[in-house]
Specification:
By secondary structure, the protein is mainly beta. Helices cover 14% and strands 40% of the residues. The strands form three sheets. An eight-stranded antiparallel beta barrel has the order 5-6-7-8-9-10-11-12. The radius of gyration is 23 Å and the shape is globular.
Length: 308
Amino acid sequence: MMSGFEQTGDGAVMTTVEDLLQWDRNFYEPRVGGTALIRQLLAPGMLNSGEKLNYAFGLTLGEHRGLKTVIHGGSWAGYRAELLRFPEQSLSVACLCNLAAANPGRLARQVAEVYLGDRMAAPEKAEARGTEAAVKIAETELARRAGLYRNPKSGELRRITLAAGKLSLDAFGPAQELIPLSPTRFRLASQPVELAFEGTGRLSVLRAGAAPEIFEMVPAASPDAAELRAYAGVYYSPELDAKCVLAVEDGKLHVRGRNLPKDPLQPTYRDGFALPGMFLEFTRGPAGAVDGFAVQAGRIRNVRFVRQ
């Protein structure tokens, strides 16, 4: 069912491929906004550390098989979309889908390769990962890869589990099967994403045209009800001017607040908990008592809540 939520500002735009053609032309012949606006839209962001991002003002700057690209995709309800532009070749592909399982990014790249394939570099291994045949790996070897992995940069978690002789990956939500290509290399069954293991404690998530995401294995924790009570209390975020309450109910830790999930917090590593699409990491003061937590949720990082 289509949501009735009126998503204005960054969404709720009804468009067509013909409309997107006019939008696309404006980047080459800037009638709306002029060259100053176009220059600003294409200016990559920069962190306080000086690290330059591949994300500009609503546009992602990158490469596909050696050619520069400018991309923006989107999704809402059961719709998926991608507008892929190759600015130096003056070629753009608009792909609009009305199926949630569609992958417009991959479809747009495939269309672009029909027209620009002879000017592109040879496909990287990452581009062919969806066609590689699976290999047979002993279950004892697969078991070495199962565990909890944390990205030290973003705080995100990934969980790899072994069941019925197969590995699956999840972020404390729906799981995806991992197809083994070698004892140290796997790919997702449903997405063009590859995973590479280094030793037993390091995981690289590889996507075409993007820097590897590094995850490190962390020991899993299973606190009992008595240990969970150490986290119960009232917490406040000065940044959000928001308050939430954590309470232990039926032996599980719950967070109560406006617009928050009703699911119990799932223990991960020590002082770490997960909700669908959200991770909480608690901090402790000099005496060892819990004094607050930080929230990581998709595009936000380290939103601090202080214990009252």
